[in-house]
What we know:
Elements: E1 2-7, H1 12-20, E2 30-36, H2 42-49, E3 54-56, H3 65-78, E4 83-86, H4 95-98, E5 105-109, H5 121-128, E6 132-139, E7 149-156, H6 163-186, E8 190-193, E9 196-199
Helix pairs in contact: 1-2, 1-6, 5-6
The structure holds 5-O-phosphono-beta-D-ribofuranosylamine.
Amino acid sequence: MKVGVLASGSGTNLQALIDAGPRGELGPARIVVVGANVADCGALERAGKAGIPTFQRSHRDFAQREDFDHALVDELRRHGVGLVALAGFMRILTPAFLDAFPRRVVNIHPALLPSFPGVHAQKQAFDSGVRFSGCTVHFVDAGTDTGPVIAQAVVPVLDGDDEEAVRLRILAEEHRLYPAVLRAIAEGRVSVDGRRVHVRGTPVGLADARLRSL
Ligand code: GRF
């Protein structure tokens, strides 16, 4: 399954996906193109180093959100993409994009949705005083971080943590969870039933399987 990754930032999640490929941890998923709305972002650099084709389109060059979305769709289609993975992509996608890839757009969010959607999720969680936070991979719908949850991983918030410590603990789990989800989708093990997503064949026996749903 050909995967297109969209990003805006440093691209550590993209890097985790790139690194997972040769280890066989993406199964039949293969990253064929990386797109960004921010020129010179770390994600584009990482893709370039890995020899993955890239494109850059600035949302500022388009009068309407839909026009930007159509341009993204054209680029992804040109590369035969069948699954879109958002990895720190800081734009809200409209139905113009989502309808082109029905139930084939996923996102990773650094909190246990539906808690703390939107930006600065780690800070929201830290400031709220929760004892556990984590990350969520979900299908993307037209809302902000509202689509059906596919998988989650939990991390503790420890005494003495600052916001950065929590951010890094969550990020380490993001890097484990996202490749596993893309693999499950590419292997045809993920089905959606309303809000509920079923993932068949979730590996068990991991030391921390209690805290990771995949
Ligand atoms: C991650 O925390 C991800 O959950 C969120 O944006 C951040 C992207 O980080 N959607 P990176 O660019 O992958 O390092």
